[in-house]
Amino acid sequence: MPMPSHNDPPPIDSGLRSVRLVLRRGSRRLRRLNPTVRGMIWTALAGFIFSLLNATMRWLALELHPFQAQFLRYLFGALVMFPLIVRTGFVAYRPNHWVGQLWRGALHTLGLSLWFLALPRITLADMTAIGFTGPIFIMIGAIWFLKEPARWDRWLAAGLGLAGVMVVVGPQLSGSGGLYHLLMLASSPVFAASFLLTKVLTRYDRPEVIVVWQSITVTLFSLPMALLVWKDLSLWQWFWFVVCGALGSAGHYCLTRSFGVSDISSTQSVKFLDLLWASLLGWLIFADIPASATLIGALVILGSTLWLARRESRRASKV
Asked: How far apart are CA 1 and CA 11, in angstroms?
């Protein structure tokens, strides 16, 4: 058996180089895809990351006041990115559109306040399914305010996805849905306005700048509410807030990349895949067994997503 030479690279260095090579190859393949499909991939990845984040935040919100959980989630989102800001330089993260960044932070804080109040009171599947009304508000706003094309297949895919959602949550929303379901529903148009503003901001600022300033502004706007209900945390809770900060920053980066490469309305049906992740995580973490209606609705959602992705790909190839 040949002995390793002194010139041979250490195993760790070789492994890092292999990872970098795989990432570069994946990046090149992603850039070859048409912009709409790339946007849908970024949106799907963001949805998976946010599902992990939501599951963790629901567990934390069961032990802390939602307003404190909201503040710490975004505080650690900002702290996680701080070393990158220092290394790159603060000037690189100075926004070109200050007013837009502040407005987006205010809108997102309002939506989050409603969302966090409802989070510990409803299941992950219900939370995700109600959130699927957001793409409808986003598509309407993108067509009315951003003048994006109102293609029939985008509306049909969103409508089919919403029908699948109603199959899942219809029994819970009919009759006495409860105050917390209404609070979660009320957060959807607010988040839609925030995401539409994100789309506008991508014309002025890089995705990294938008993500950094969302964390900063939401943290500042949430601080007064958190101070009113503050409670001491355990070491494990501090640790999981660090994890949530990293997940949140990664998810918003993917979502901002999606908004930067394609029309916002063309990617929204992919968000219905989030129901699959929410149902799986709810079963694994909270022992929520997905009902048969959840599985049927998920099939409808997945079918509409794949159908629109195929049509968008064919449309782009003809241009």
From this structure: 17
Q: Count Cα neighbours of 220 within 13 Å in the Cβ-side half-sphere.
A: 12
Distance (Å, rounded) from C-alpha 135 to C-alpha 264? 9
* pTM: predicted TM-score of the whole model, two decimal places: 0.73
Mean pLDDT of 223-234: 94
- Measure the N-to-C terminal CA separation of the chain; round to a whole number of Å: 58
- Cα torsion 263, 124, 173, 306 to 10°: value is 40
Burial grade of 9 (CB within 10 A; 0-12, 13-18, 19 or more) = exposed
82: its two tokens = 């701080």
List pLDDT tens digits, range 43-84: 889 989 999 998 999 999 888 999 999 999 989 988 888 888
Percent of the chain with pLDDT over 70: 81
Greater pLDDT, 280 or 6: 280
